[in-house]
Amino acid sequence: MRYANIVLGLLMVAFAVVQYNDPDPYIWVPIYLWAGAWAFAAAFATPRLAARSLQGLLALSLLVYAGLVVFYWPRAEGFWHQEVWWNDEEAREGMGAMIAFAVLLCASAVAFTARSRRS
Question: 78: left (phi > 0), else alpha (psi -120 to 50), else beta?
């Protein structure tokens, strides 16, 4: 899982970098970087993620990102098809929220496993 989280963290950093020409980078850069930070924490600081305070912060992050997925869920039919998301900003934003949430889920799997091993 370490290598998977490194790749996911790098992916989130790349997503943040390409927001330079987005109309609302002040929203999406922090969203992607926060998810990337959790992925890197899961890769390099797994024992620290077993701390109760970090587990609470991670759980709160999961709730917030689940809310982002609901809020940004694309309304376009077949939003996952390239011809739709290529031309529809709302579809791209919704898929970005879904990807960031999936990255947090991967980091959570590592963190909560670390917690159960510690107990």
Answer: left
